[in-house]
Amino acid sequence: MKHVRFTNAHQSITFSRRMMLLGGAQAGVGALLIGRMGWLSIAQNAKYQLLSESNRVQLIPVPPRRGWIVDRNNKPIAINKASFRVDIIPQQLVDGPKVVAQLAKLLELPPDEVERINRELAVSRGFQPVSVSDNISYEKYAAVTVRGPELPGVAASRGFTRFYPAGSAVGQLVGYVGTASAAEYEKEHKNPLLLIPGVKIGKEGLEQTLESTLRGEPGGQRVEVTAHGKLVKELEAKPDRSGGTVQLTIDADLHEYTARRIGEQSCSVVVLDVNEGDILAMPSMPSFDPNNFSDGISRNEWKMLSGDDHLPLVDKALESLYPSGSTIKPSMAMALLNAGIDRKQRVNCTGSYPLGNHVFHCDKRHGPVDMDAAIVHSCDIYFYDMCRRVGAEKLAPMIRSMGFGEKFDLPFDNQRYGTVPDPEWMMRKYHRQWQTYDTINMSIGQGMVLINPMQLAVMAARLATGKRVIPRLLKNKPVAPQEHLEVDADHLTFIRQAMANVVDHGTAAAAKLPLDGIQMAGKTGTAQTHRLSDAERGNYTAALWKLRDHSLFMGFVPFNNPRYAAAAIVEHGGFGAAVAAPLIRDTLLFLYDKQKALANLQSFEQGIGGTLEERNARKTASWRSANGLPALPPTKA
Amino acid sequence: MITSAIIPKPLARLPWRLIFLVAGIATFGLIVLYSAAGGSIQPWAMKQAIVFTGFLGIAVGMSWMKETTIKAIAFPLYAVTLVMLIGVEALGFVSKGAQRWLDLGPIRLQPSEFMKPAIVLTLARFYELVPAAEIRKWRAIWPAMLLLGVPAFLILVQPDLGTCIMVMLCGVTVMFLAGLPWWLFAGPAAAVAVAAPIVYSMMHGYQRKRIDVFLDPESDPLGAGYHIAQSKIAIGSGGIWGKGFLHGSQSHLDYLPEGHTDFVFATMAEEWGLVGGILLICAFGAVIRWGMRVSQNSRTRFGQLAAAGLSATIFFYVSINLMMVMGLAPVVGVPLPLVSFGGSAVMTVMLCLGLLMALERQQRTVSRLA
């Protein structure tokens, strides 16, 4: 390149060229700025307008009223009771310490509560109210209200607490509600509703699983606030929407009756309407009083409940598994008939059945028994022998089709479904060959057979109808179509008759309904919880409670035209016929003759020491004194 | 220029177009400040009005300065400002961390503000002295780099990143117009791209965070990204016509921080919308264009370079502030001249305008005879 001398002329040209470039760049920046501003204020105007609105407007949420839970006749199971509460809105508080001291005096707050309030006030921000006291009496509410003008920042309000009229009778059914935990708040993407004092969400049972229906939509007072949370003015309010009502198939009266009739036992009962599969009652007792949870349960109450060996915190109808015992026999007999066994063929019962170097027992020497007698008198030897002939492969499918081991679509989280064993299952689960003694055990519902009470009731319903009855709890859920089971109508008639005979003159004679023309059919069961010693054999109440057999019963009424099916499993209740059968008798009697049933209940409750409430109160008192705690004050009005 | 028999000649000879334009911008600024204070002339609008009027008077007074006088004070002004900057630095060590002011009794002087016009005048004067033949030589480059580098460094360590960038840009603009070789600008631009990570690592914590958040404002919507996020909400929610005077919720409810200083444009845009924004941008554009015209019409090399540099100073003020407010540049703390509350920016811009008016008057009087 040739070197050119840079002259004034060059300089002048360079200058004007570069001036043009600079001017162009400036104009370009100007255009960019205008373009950017246009983009922000036209193209993205809607987005930013929304953001600016959500900056400006804050919602002070008004919690929605929780939806009711009602029974099939619209009788309330879970409702809301008006309650009174006092909160402090830190924003409006003028002389904090003085106001808190005055409230403490008015509401008779204990010192640790006062300390909690002061602590929460110190960290509170903006509109988040601090709860002073909830569930206070009307008198105290009124006392705070009249002093309103001298207590700036104190808000006394009427709220609602969850109320369950039937108390502990429905504890396991409905679960309970409680204040949301930090984890639940996070899980709901920091739903501000969960932070409002007094807002309770479902924690267990139906209250939890039906939460989305029951909760409703919060409304709120809309206010304009500054960036620092200071209120500028109030805007129009957004109305709240109450939660939806949920109707259950439950018959609340029957459910409560059954719960009371269970008495002191650790037991659950399931009653079904066989036509639709509606669950009419499913109490699990003992239970907890969900009302106590609504106010926040005390540590001691929790300790008492979790320490109880009758497991009041477990829903035994769906979460507990038991050997079915002899209640399996009608289904087993059905399977035998299906496999071609002649029902007239007899097996001689000598009271014991040797197999290899082991001897299986029967609780009596029945002599020669045919199928009807084997069911009626619950002869084990007959089933050992017949089932052994047919083999487990042919038995298990029938037992499963009757409902054992089946999963039901019910709105509960912790259901357990048990097992119906067969050789293939044994190999998969325990990696061993199926043995003859497995068939023997299975034939009388022992060994690996595990069921829950719901399945037992379903089995009764399916034996009653010959159809695939599917239990249902939510009334608005469509009734599942009931297919016919692969059973012979003739076999079914025979089994029903045999089950009627069980109640008429067999092992469950105690379950006979005191009604003309309505006969119950059923089957007792006694499930061993451990290997019996010879001394214990035939002496069911001798052992410690924990070691006693479970008492089972399943049945349906009327036997010739079934309408209701029911099952009960009484933990460590002893002989099936002695405890579970009369319990189902009274339960089903209630459906036909309330007067008689209630009379029975009254005499029963007198025998065990009073009503459910009375017994619960006594139990609590004795637990408290045993644990060195002062007696509780008389219950709130 | 107004020619009328009634108006006395000295007054008629003032560049009234510019004065009306500047006064218009300032008045609009006062209206915005009035609204930012929730519809009150206290505490900003009144004070700002007084400061502006004062400096407008000074600027008009400066317009009678001769170009030779300006030329003569260029180097001394630079020297004095540099000494003051060193003084600030020295005192800053004595007192707490970031000291940008020099306390001289009742007046708090911010020497870095003076450096903006001073560097422009100095470099213009320097390149006037460099013969055309020498312009592509090393000896035309290193003194300018030194003249620019020393104050820029002193301001950077104050620390005042915004002013440092402004001073650098003003100086570089003059050097560019002086005709220095291309590679001198293209090279460093490439170097900056390479060196950016290194500079980043040397930054102060809060400066670095601003860069981080600028690149991803949503990463910290409640912290350092809050300014940008709220500013964009204010501008975006204003729409075409704005929410109306005194109806800006972002600024009135304090969601927009610094709504009367660095982010005053967002406050304005929320209430006056795109229309107000374009009007303001165009008004500034007209002022800058006027300044660039002064440069183009100037017959002397000093006048050309000085006028262009001074106009560029105003341009950089406006463009950096607006890019920052609209989320196109990191938040570096550059006010919007004549609109943002605060005397420093008004002072600098009015000094620039005063000098520009002086240069313009020169063209109308002296140059014609030349």
Quickly list its features.
heterodimer, A: alpha+beta, six-stranded antiparallel β-sheet, 24 helices, 41% helix, B: 370 residues, mainly alpha
Report on this model:
Chain B: Peptidoglycan polymerase that is essential for cell wall elongation. Chain B: It is a multi-pass membrane protein. The complex is a heterodimer of chains A (637) and B (370). Chain A is α+β, with helices and mostly antiparallel strands and 637 residues long. Helices cover 41% and strands 16% of the residues of chain A. Chain A contains 24 helices and 20 strands. In chain A, strands 11, 12, 13, 18, 19 and 20 form a 6-stranded antiparallel sheet that branches. In chain A, strands 2, 3, 4, 5 and 10 form a 5-stranded mixed sheet that branches. In chain A, helix 3 packs antiparallel against helix 4. The longest helix of chain A is centred in the N-terminal third of the chain and has 36 residues. Chain A is elongated, with a radius of gyration of 35 Å. Chain B is mostly helical. Chain B is 69% helix and 2% strand. Chain B has 14 helices and 2 strands. About 1% of the residues of chain B have low confidence. Chains A and B meet through helix 1 and helix 2 of A and helix 7, helix 10, helix 12 and helix 13 of B.
The H-and-E topology of chain B, N to C, reads as HHHHEEHHHHHHHHHH
Shape of chain B: globular
Poorly predicted ranges of chain B: 94-98
What percentage of amino acids of chain B are in beta strands?
Answer: under 5%
Mean pLDDT of chain A: 87
Q: What's the number of extended β-strand segments of chain A?
A: 20
- Helices and strands of chain A: which structural class? alpha+beta
Q: Major β-sheet of chain B, in short?
A: 2 strands, antiparallel
Helix content of chain B: 55-70%
Category from helices, strands and their pairing of chain B: mainly alpha
